[in-house]
Amino acid sequence: MVPRCWMTEKTEKILKEFLHFYEDQYGVALFNSMRHEIEGTGLPQAQLLWRKLPLDERIIFSGNLFQYQEDNKKWRNRFSLVPHNYGLVLYENKVAYERQVPPRAIINSAGYKILTSVDQYLELVGNSLPGTTSKSGNAPILKCPTQFPLILWHPYARHYYFCMMTEAEQDKWQAVLQDCVRHCNNGIPEDSKVEGPAFTDAIRMYRQSKELYGTWEMLCGNEVQILSNLVMEELGPELKAELGPRLKGKPQERQRQWIQISDAVYRMVYEQAKDRLEKVLSKLQLARPAMEAAIRTDMDQIITSKEHLAAKIRAFILPKAEVCVRNHVQPYIPSILEALMAPTSQGFTEVRDVFFKEVTDMNLNVINEGGIDKLGEYMEKLSQLAFHPLKMQSCYEKMEPLRLDGLQQRFDVSSTSVFKQRAQIHMREQMDNAVYTFETLLHQELGKGPTKEELCKSIQRILERVLKKYDYDSSSVRKKFFREALLQIAIPFLLKKLAPTCKSELPRFQELIFEDFARFLLVENTYEEVVLQTVMKDVLQAVKEAAVQRKHNLYRDSVVMHNSDPNLHLLAEGAPIDWAERCGDAGEDSGGSSGSPSLGAPEAVTPSEKRRRAKQVMSVVQDEEAGLPFQDGSESPSLASPDSVTELRGLLAQDLRAESPPPASPLLNGAPAQESPEPGATPEAASPPASPLRHPPPGKAVDLEPPKPSDQETGEQVSSAGSRPPIHTTTEDSAGVQTEF
Questions:
Q1: Distances (CA, A) of 543 to 404, 430, 638
Q2: Pairing status of strand 716-717 against strand 160-163
Q3: What's the CA angle centered on 477, arms 476 and 478, to 5 degrees?
Q4: For 383-522, where are the alpha helices, taking DSSP H only?
Q5: Burial class (CB in 10 A: 0-12, 13-18, 19+), 180
Q6: What angle do CA 96, 101, 106 make, to 5 degrees?
Q7: Nearest by Cα to 478 from 417, 424, 397
Q8: What is the 3-state secondary structure (H, E, C) of 318-340?
Q9: Counting beta carbons within 10 angstroms of the beta carbon of residue 652, is it exposed (0 to 12), middle (13 to 18) or buried (19 or more)?
Q10: Residue 116: what are its φ and ψ, rounded to 5°?
Q11: Which of 173, 149, 147 is nearest to 159 (CA)?
Q12: Which residues, at least 6 apart from 69, have a Cβ–Cβ distance to it below 8 Å?
């Protein structure tokens, strides 16, 4: 086997080189951020409001699914839920969850692909290690007992295997897990104005130094996950070449060994990357006050110096860049834009239609059924619309046909998934903005004490008002998305084309930068900005011309709405709306009372009652056709044969009523731990110990809160039985796992 010290040294070498780029980019990003604060954006003002704490302490989805246990090769039934931070949490059963027994695993799905076919999975596994494709007649690495698997595949980290009993269940869980992947891939906070841009620019600069241009499919997750992917991109092929020929056994056994080795190396790389990045960040944070003071003092001089540098670089590269743009980029911009616009516009139109339908249905329910008494219940459901995986699925699906046929290879676009997911995130944000704006306006209307008839008319009027705002904002968001996507495709292509004639000449421009400004101005960044400016005119013109076409439903640039509704933004400054308190408890939370809603000040609610209410509205999506299996029982029995569909159906039909047993011994990598380690296990293939879990002192009451997913390399956090709290029959006296996301 490859010595651990070799892998550590190789990882350290890559990290050191990358972190040099990161330190350089930090000063540039800090200067750009401070300049942006002073000069502003000039972008049109959004008309819709945005929710500051979306889905706070809510559950996206909960249900049961079967998970394949790799250590004993059996399928086990797990109670699973997805909290508001989109980490898939796996419990022994529902009783364990309700009693706050630590979960079996928490999976952060950044970088994963969701596969619905075992054949797809076997093909990817076979390609990951050449020469291990199973021959006809050999047992594959995985057998699924049903026709409805869901597999989480990662190029470096551990894989997860699930299966469902019906196609409907598979579709539900696929929509949920796609939501998890989409959210976790977008792991760098958008409100990070310095660290985030510095990191992504450093990633791009590092990969370009290795002659790697174009989009990168593994730019997903938080900073440490992305950095681990960067190391594995370089380290993985060397490991494969060194260890591949040494693996023994049948093809499926060698595949299994390679998956375990890759996962163990990835975990080691993750811990090393996390440690190094934290140290560099600490050093930069200490230096930041002095850097900010220097920028404030010399802002005008730095800007003047940058403009002088840009003018010199522009004079040098402009003739070459213009020819390259004219011959290799400009003719293809309309084709790229059309390929992007059709599915994106359809998706945003579907968002509008879904929002209209949900509000209209709610209004009809107010008229025909519940009246004002049920308004709190209806609004509670509507407030979660943007985060409902199934109701939003029709919007997200519109992006799936996105193709860049013929252009993908030309412009070195490895995958269109980065554009699909970005557009889908915009759809979710715009849906929630529309819902939140509707909530705010309706809440204001309720203060007037309307009758049922007046309320229904007000709902219709508010809906029309919000839709107009949505049309404007979605147009602005789409145009911005199209511009960014075109630049993301064109700029790396241009840089690669110009590199042979221009890149070697850049060092001579370094002498134009004063030494005091060298931390905030870099020749490479200024060069890229000049290249961007050469193609920006064509991109803006193409998007402007597209806005004229009615089929895309875009506003022209001349249509600008400034401060059209200033009072609306003042309404958003208030506390978040609690519809259960505002309109009285409804449904199950009302405890069967039928009194009229209290539109005045809400009564005081005890902490215990708040936890009870939170538990009632935990699941956004419920399977209304059948109850969740094993919800009253303990550990589900294992399946001796993974091919036995009959046994699976029998397990789902059972109603277990035994008391929940204590969890197994400490878990490694999310699988049930064995009583003793297997003899001869190599340290390279072993999983690192889980992070210690933090529990409150015994007997201390805590709020019911789902565990947060960790940001480890596989996204998995496992529980530690040695430190678990005593099992209680109520949720007030025990706590779930508390981990960092």
A1: 17, 20, 57
A2: unpaired
A3: 95
A4: 389-396, 407-410, 417-446, 452-502
A5: buried
A6: 95
A7: 424
A8: HHHHHHHHHHHHHHHHHHHHHHH
A9: middle
A10: -110, 10
A11: 149
A12: 75, 76, 638, 671, 672
Q: Give the distance, in angstroms, between the CA of residue 521 and the centroid of all CA atoms in the same chain.
A: 32
| Residue 136 φ/ψ region, left for φ over 0, alpha for ψ in the -120 to 50 degree band, beta for the rest | beta
The angle formed by the CA atoms of residues 115, 119 and 120, to the nearest 5 degrees, is 40
Q: CA-CA distance, 343 to 719, in Å (whole number)? A: 42
Helix (H, G, I), strand (E, B) or coil at 668: strand
Q: How far apart are CA 741 and CA 733, in angstroms?
A: 24
Rounded to whole angstroms, how far apart are CA atoms 261 and 267? Answer: 10
Tens digits of per-residue pLDDT, 620-666?
344 434 333 333 333 444 444 344 444 444 444 443 333 333 333 33
Q: What is the pLDDT of residues 330-350, one digit of tens each?
A: 999 999 999 999 999 999 999
- CA 142, CA 672: separation in Å to the nearest integer? 18
* 434: amino acid identity, one letter: A
Torsion on CA atoms 285, 286, 292, 295, rounded to nearest 10: -110
Residue type (1 letter), 442:
L
Residue in the block written with tokens 């069967």: 592
Biggest CA-to-CA distance, the chain? 80
Q: How far is CA 119 from the centre of its chain?
A: 26
- Contact assessment for residue 349 and residue 555, using Cβ atoms and an 8 Å cutoff: no
3-class DSSP state for residue 49?
coil
Six token digits for residue 133: 């494709």
Percent of the chain residues topping a pLDDT of 70: 72
pLDDT at 40 over 90: no
Written as six digits, the tokens of 122 are: 């076997």
Arithmetic mean of pLDDT, 182-205: 93
Whole-model pTM above 0.70?
yes
CA distances from 546 to 94, 488, 554 (A): 52, 19, 8
Q: What's the length of the chain?
A: 741
DSSP string, 199-227: HHHHHHHHHHHTT--S--TT--SSHHHHH
**Residue 567 class from Cβ within 10 Å (0-12 exposed, 13-18 middle, 19+ buried)?**
exposed
Residue type, 102: P
What does the pLDDT read at residue 160? 96
